[in-house]
Write a structure and sequence with these properties.
593 residues, alpha+beta, Beta-Lactamase, Heat Shock Protein 90, disordered C terminus
Length: 593
Amino acid sequence: MPPAWRLMARLRLRTQLLVGTLLIICALIGSLLVIVRHIVRAEIADGVQQSTDVSLHAFENVQRQRDIELSRTAALMAELPPLKAVLATQHALTIQDASEPFWKLAGSQLFVLSSPDGQIYGFHVSEHGWDATLAETSLKRSIEQGDDSAWWYGQGQLYRVFLHTIFAGAGNNQRQVGIIAVGYQIDSSVAAQLSLASGSQIALVTGDQIIATTLSAREQKALGQMRTDWAGSTKSQELELGASSYQAADVLLHAGPPADVRCYVLMSLEPANAFLRRLNRTIILLGVSAIVLAGLLLSFVSRTITHPLDDLVAGVRALAGGDYVYSINPRGSSEVAELGEAFSKMRGELLAAEQRRFATERITALGRAASSISHDLRHYLAAVVANAEFLYEAEKLKLNRDDIYGEIKTASEQMTDLLDSLRELSRGEGSISLRPAAIDNTIRHAVDAVRARPEMRNREILIRTTGDMRGTFDPQKIERAFFNLVLNACEASVTTQGEIEIELHSSSTLFEIRVIDHGTGVPSAICQSLFDPFVSFGKSNGTGLGLAIVSKVIHDHGGSVAVEETSMSGTTFLVRLPRVPQVIHEAAHAISL
């Protein structure tokens, strides 16, 4: 199972329902919003494409109109008789001086008069950088190609030029006396006019150099870096020039020589992008609002569905904790109400069964306790009666009265110990008398009492302490508890004659005492019931009350006792005892308040 499914499985039903439904709603709303955004973006892209095409057509129309006007100007100038008369002189200096008024009349930035073979007689240009030699070279190339219009490029300047042949005479006497060429320079002013007409940015490029543009220097540099790979594409593309986005189209104005002349028409995408940003914010706001509203609605619906189940779960937990009187009100859907009624019926049956089991166990426990106690008392009384008879006939049988008296005394002490143990188990929790004492001294007294027994005199019992041993407890009860615990450890390892180890460690709030023997271990069958009354193992004369008294005394002090480890090589009992019982803490807190 994937980790996400395992995590969902640990959540409550209401949370699973809420999270699952919200995820579905988020997926549906997200998909819907993405589709809407894609459709709107596609519509915007189509609009931008159409605007780019319109701008491109507008540019081409403006460019065509300028070409027509300049071509007509060249044709009209070629028909002027004074111009023909000047050109007929074939004298370069005369023509150069006399052609200036005609240049001003044409209103062009480039004006050239030449012989039919391309030798220039008159040359005028408004911008420095061009000379007659460069113009003559371009003119001869245009004559060779038979062009009526041409693009002349040199020294970083680009001109759009129109040529017209000048004829003199009429009829059969008509002859070609020269050629006139008029043109205008493609510069930033031209790009600005074209940009205004087309409603977009313009970049005019020849070869690998941008001749004229309305772009900023930063955008020009970006265009120069990417246009090599993009030039010649038949479709418009979206370009990122610096911080600005453009939809760009490329149109070929002239295919060299000397170089191709291209025009880039760039439609700004900033208005469209601004609209998309507003659309995105609106979509996100609508999506979040829809999810929040759906969450509130689902929370209400899920509460209606799962609240009866929560009541049922609370009833199950109460039943698991032993509370058979916890009631639930079956409600909700018919299935949930039916489940609640079935649970109430089951709880009643379990309560009746538990009462019957408790009564049976109580009778069984009383019978077992009565049987064990009567067996032990009968054993001890039999010893007393038998030894009393021996004591009565001691002289006749020549028996030692002291030995008989010792047997009677031992049996009496064992009966007294059994009765004391029963009385200790029957006392309530308030039967302890707390006072400050040292736990190590109390345990040493218990060890000395164990060693006082004849069979235990030679047993080796080691005590190791760590930390402060002072605390508040009932020394007498704790001594008796550890007497039973140490005696039990000695009896468990009597066949191995191993040493008994007692480790005492204290923290700021707790004593931890470990009693370690090297016996054969505790069988797993009685590990869970080892501290119950009348449970004994491996001892022929055990009453089964020693460890039960240990458990009661330690629990009366707010502590715990358990088998920490057991195996064939020995057993470790762990006792955790508060240094100051909780009742004293609560009393001190009440006094301070």
